[in-house]
Each structure stands twice: as C-alpha cells, then as structure tokens.
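Subgroup meeting minutes
Present: P.N., E.W., G.H.
Scribe: E.W.

1. P.N. recapped why we're keeping a running log of single-chain structure predictions: easier to compare across weeks, and new members can see raw inputs and outputs side by side.
2. G.H. added today's entry (208 aa).
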Amino acid sequence: MERQQLQFLREAIVAAWKDGQGPKPDAIDLGFQWLFGTGNKVDFFTAGDEFTEQIRNDHSMDYVRAEIVTKIRNGDPDDFLGGYSVMKLEGWPRLLSDATDVLSLGGTGTAKNWASGGKFGTSTATFIGSYGYKFKVISRDSKTGKVKIGIQIDNDTTITSFTHLPGPAKKYIEKYVGNPLTGIADAFDLPLRTKHQTVYWEEEVNLR
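Output recorded in log:
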C-alpha cells in the first residue's frame, strides 16, 4: 500500500506540474490529434479543466463512486483499483449512441448533455468510453462519515480500443486487427498511435 501511495502521489505531482503549461486540449482536439498522430502522447488534466469536469460529472462516475464507497467500507488497503466498462455496463445502446453523436457532429450529444445536466452526451465521455481508475483516501471524518479522496482516471486511446465490439468476435478482432495495427502505429509514430490521458481531482464522498 505504501508503494502504491507513493506512486499515486508522484503521478499527481506530475499532473499538477503539467497544469498551466499552455492551453489544455478538449476531447475534440484529442480526437483529431489521435487521428492525425499529432499532439502529446500523454495528456494530464486536473480539476477545472473541461476534460476533467465533463468526466467527473458523467453518469459513469455515479457507478465508480458507489464502487469506491464500497471498497472503503470493506477496508481492504489493496483494493484501490477499478474500472468502468462500456461493453459490460451499457453495451450496444451506448455504442450506437456515441456513433450517432459523432455522425451528427455533436448535435445529438449536445442535446443529451443539456437535457441531462452533463450526465450524458459530453464529448469527453464519447472520446474516453471505457476507462480505469484508482483512488486514495486523503482524510476521513468518522463523525460525519465524509471521506476526502483523490481519484485518478487513466485511458489509452488506441486502434484496439476503437475497434472494441461486444460479442464473440471481439477477442479475434483485437488479436488480429486492433493489436497489430496499434503496434505498427506506435512503432513508427504514425497517425492513430496510442494517446494516453491521465485525469486527477479530489472530492468528498459520504459513507453513510
């Protein structure tokens, strides 16, 4: 646990150091950068950045927060990792919804975003899709049940992730199409090379 906390702190410090080093790209910028092989290979986002705030308010984080609360209640010091799987939790309806948002140039996504108060349809959620997270407990108030936590989301944008499809063919598409093409793009620094996003913020959750 101690090693994990040190690593978490190191990554948070790096993210904070990157903050303010020029304008932060939004999800649309990142999408075009990935498509054409430009921009940073790793982008860091912190509280206040549009990218951070959109994923922070997304409906997927309701699931993640509930999972984190359960992990804290269970008290396992090694259970600090998790993830949100679009395929597992939302499946084809989400894929079709995201595809519609892209094809409408964000029109349907904007409508869903307004109607849901940012829970659905943001460009960041469409861009990220599934993601992994880790968290740490910063402070805990036993009287109120409130716990301050740091949450870090990590996501790789790759050809493999872009070709994820539910169903029995998924593993074959990944093995024979996605992974080889991703390897080539990364090896020769081509368009569609891997782009990584790290997002960090702190907030309170209530255990009661």
